[in-house]
Amino acid sequence: MTGPIVVGVDGSPTAQRAAHKARDLAQKLDVALHVVSAHTDATIEHVNSGSDQWVVSGADNALYIAEQVVRGLRTPGLKIQAGSAQGKPAEALIDYAEKAGAQLIVVGNQRMRGARRVLGSVANSVSHTAGCDVYIANTYAD
């Protein structure tokens, strides 16, 4: 395997567990890891505090989430980077993976069992439409 591994995160504990499994795979396969968070909000918000003003967007928030996960995954010798992608989570992850030349997407198995599986899951959508291999990590708490 030569292309990077892409893992989707959203700040949840289950996504964190998937990211740790993705890190372990990337390390064993000696490939780069891209930690990606999706956002659907393309708007930009201006936040004022006294004379200071900040410009905040959905992309900024998604990137912040990915960066927080990356901080917890840092491993010597592993190339790891944070990213954000616009769109619904499954579509955004697949688009990002295609642009990055990823050979593997790692997603957690959240919402894949029980009554909520009828509503669909990111893992289900990614596994049926990705142009590369997909690893569905068991993220249920032990």
TrEMBL record:
**InterPro entries to which the protein is assigned, alphabetical:** Rossmann-like_a/b/a_fold, Universal_stress_UspA, UspA
**What Gene3D superfamilies does the annotation carry?**
HUPs (3.40.50.620)
**What highest taxon heads this organism's lineage?**
Bacteria
Q: Where would I find the UspA domain in this sequence?
A: 1-136
Q: Which family does it belong to?
A: Belongs to the universal stress protein A family.
The protein's name: Nucleotide-binding universal stress UspA family protein
Q: Which SUPFAM superfamilies match?
A: Adenine nucleotide alpha hydrolases-like
